[in-house]
């Protein structure tokens, strides 16, 4: 990457539902906390995120949410959504990108392959199948689920979207956490 003066960018997507993940909490002995939820909702929020690293630059996080209530009825990202996200990253980062992502079928479509081939500033590598431990964005999802969305009953889908965006925005201002997610993959040595 240093020879190319390129950003190393990892991509991953995750889904968040109205039913919150539960984590440990403290309470008085014999008084188990109870969160009442009005009803189960099948509403989900999909989010794609890019963790961006470059020597001498602070780590960056770029993300895009995709609520399941879209005009075309699609509940997940299309290849055009990924194209737009990569284009946004290129504009924000201002340099060539080496993109590392999984083997999601949307990443492998003919339209996406054409888009990648037509961009001399974009180089793409596929992660091996079933290798989430090599993707630092998985660590970002873990942090988000343990902090922002943990033990929280969402009032409606807009509340879920607001909470996830707030959590991701907070992570954008904490490059040390993003560096820690990369260090957790053991792809980069931790600084002395």
TrEMBL record:
Transmembrane segments: none annotated. It comes from the Bacteria. Residues 8-161 form the Tc1-like transposase DDE domain. InterPro entries: RNaseH_sf, Tc1-like_DDE_dom, Transpos_IS630-like. This is Tc1-like transposase DDE domain-containing protein. It comes from Streptomyces labedae.
